[in-house]
Amino acid sequence: MSPVGFTVALGLKDLGLAEWAAADIGTVLPSSPTLRSVFESALSDADLCKLDWSAVAEVTRRTLTLMSALMSAPDCGPRDGRRRRSTP
After folding, report:
1. Where are the alpha helices (DSSP H) in 1-88?
2. Higher model confidence: residue 76 or residue 53?
3. Total domains in the fold of the chain
4. 40 within some domain
5. Is the Cα torsion angle 5, 47, 54, 10 positive or negative in sign?
6. What is the predicted pLDDT for the residue at 72?
7. Domain of 56, in residue numbers
8. Model pTM?
């Protein structure tokens, strides 16, 4: 395995700098909250926190896998406790 070139921690640090610079000039970075979440997820994982930006791809892969599994799960009915009317 080759040494890590640019760590996830450095990526998060740079994102923070970009957020600070954007706020300083009144600009919004719409993807910033999503990126921050991905970086923080990678840093909270014992294996991924040691990686470079490939950790970002792995967090994204895991998220999409989970979303796909949830979307393909059988419908368990309304979430508010009401019974669904059956259709003929």
Report:
1. 8-24, 32-43, 54-72
2. 53
3. 1
4. yes
5. negative
6. 85
7. 29-70
8. 0.71
